[in-house]
Structure formats: structure tokens, C-alpha cells
Amino acid sequence: MQVITRPEEFDVTDLYVDLERIVGRRVLMKCEGFNFARSSKLKPALEMVTLAERAGVLRPGSTIVEMSSGNLGVALSLVAASRGYRFVCVTDPRSTLLTRQLMQNLGTEVLVAPDPAAGLRLVRRLCAENDGHTWLDQYANAGNWMAHFRSTGPDILRTVPDLDVLFVGVGSAGTLTGCARYLRQVRPQVRIVAVECVGPGPRAARRSSAVRTSVRFPVIDMSLVDDLVRVDESAAIRACRRLALSGFLLGGGSGMVLAGALGWLEENDADTAVVISPDLGDRYLDTIYQDQWVKDNYGPEALLDGADHEFPYAKTLFEVP
Q: What does the pLDDT average to over 7-26?
């Protein structure tokens, strides 16, 4: 029996799903969403807060400030509530109402900025004008990737010692960079494939809370990556919906990585592939799992038809530069 006193103490790290019966090839999905934050962002949130505490930046009465439109904001809300800090999350219109309500119910003050540039100005102003306000800056904070260097990377290799290729979503690149740096040191022959979403038009603004970024932030070290796969958002949505028909309700980031992995595996050989699933699907019920929302934002082609029991997008909706 596991007994905990703080929510961040619970985090399932050894759960893998063999997707062969669903996708037709052996792909192991490492599920990172089984914690009270419901995503892989609990690890970097905890690491960044702990490092700030050790450095004396966070003290009793301090306020954490961070920009997030999704999972990191929820994870930091949880950690801040557990450790007695105020948390101000600066988000943007892409964040869902459900995500904002969840953060607010954990005690977070949520401020909505019209775009990332305005959000950045607001974060800097809050910290400049208020004593005790600390910006963690996830995109430049080493704790973002160190959490995965110390835990996720070793966990994968311990569980799957014969790993050939690892697929990771880009996002803020904490998971990607941490796992890649660990594997390059310990098992350099493992291929590392980064996966990111692209929308219609050049670097279109993302309309769902999937893994998303439009610029390369300092935490990313793309020299550690063997391949970069770009996945159409519609393919990510269809992957999520196909998994749901088999009983696995996962988030947009999980569908994106799986879609990219299957596309890459159509063109490359690998005996043992692991896909990191960063999130669960309950926060996406009113977006990617809602038919009308999908049709309004992506068109009817983003929906599975009644006869679609496979992953038909594997060869057509990805690219490997």
C-alpha cells in the first residue's frame, strides 16, 4: 500500500502500453499522465520549484510566476498549493476554460494575455513591481530538462534495455532534451526522434492544447536529435480518437507523438520503439473529442469515419526533413 502526504509524491513511472493490437506493430507507449497533475509536467514543475527553494529564491510567502497555456500551469498549481506558495499563471486565449478553472480551483491566479509577447511583458512587470515574485522561466530553466535526465531517461532504459528508438514531443523540449542527454551518455546508439505539430499555414497558431511551440527556446539542444518529424494537427486528433475507440483516452500531445512515430516507422526499421505519452485525455473532452469543435476548426476530414479502424495517415500526414 502506498501512503502519501503530498500530491506530488504520487507519480506512476513504470506504466507502458503495448500498442501492437491497435497499430499493427510493436510500439510501447510510456504513460506519463498518471499523477495528480495528469501529465508529464509534474516532474519539471517539481524540479524547478525545488531548485528555486535550494537557491533561496523561493521562501515562505513567495509567489511563483510562470507562462503556460496548459499542463505546466496545472502542475505548478498543484506544487504551489502543496508547498504553500501563491502562483500567478499568465496564459493566453489558447488555454481551455477547463484548464483555467482547474488552476483556479487549486488556488492559482490566472491572467490571460492576448499573445505570448504580451504575456512575457506581463510576467516581467509582475516580477519587477512585486517583491517576492519569482519567474521560473520554463523555457530557459535547466530544471525543465534535468527532471527527465534524472528520472524519465533512466526509467525508460531500465524498463526497455533493448530500446532502438525513442519518440518525444518537442513542446518546451524539457522531456526531449533530458532524455536525449541521458541516452547520449549511456546508450548513444539509441535513435531519438523529435515530433512536433504543424497547423495549416506557416507556423499557424495552435487551436488545441496539444504540444506546441513556434520558436526554438534556449532549453532545446537539437544536436541531440536524429530526426524531426512534423505532424499535421488533424493526424494527431485522429490518432487520439482511434486510441479512444480502443479504450485509451489520451491527450493531444500523446496523439501527436504516436502519429509521428507511426509515420517514421513506415520508412525506418526499428525492433523496439518507445513513444512518450505526456498527458491523459480528460481535459480534451470539449475540444479534440468533441465532433463539432473538430469540424469547426479542422474540417470533417479530421474525424474518423465509421470504417476507419487503422491509422491511414501514417504515410501521408508527416514529413521528415
A: 96
Q: 289 and 186: one domain?
A: yes
- Name the pLDDT band for 236 (thresholds 50, 70, 90): very high
For 148-163, the DSSP string reads: IIIIIHHHHHHH-TT-
| pTM more than 0.85 | yes
Query: What's the whole-number mean pLDDT along residues 295-303?
Result: 89
Residue type, 105: N
- Quick check: 210 pLDDT over 60? no
Q: Is the same domain home to 11 and 149?
A: yes
Residues 85 and 66 in one domain: yes
Provide the domain count of the chain: 2
Long-range contacts of 87-93 (CB under 8 A, 24+ apart): 87/63, 88/63, 88/64, 88/126, 88/133, 90/65, 90/66, 90/119, 90/122, 90/123, 90/126, 91/67, 91/119, 92/116, 92/119
- The continuous run of DSSP H or E covering 292 comes out as helix 291-298
Cα dist. 277→198, 204, 211, 245 in Å? 18, 23, 11, 17
Range of the domain at 207: 7-31+142-302
| pLDDT at residue 114 is higher than 60 | yes
CA-based angle 75:81:36, to the nearest 5? Answer: 40
Conformation bin of residue 112: beta by default, left when phi > 0, alpha when psi is -120 to 50? beta
Q: Are residues 290 and 168 in the same domain?
A: yes
How many degrees, rounded to 5, is the angle at CA 305 between CA 303 and CA 311? 80
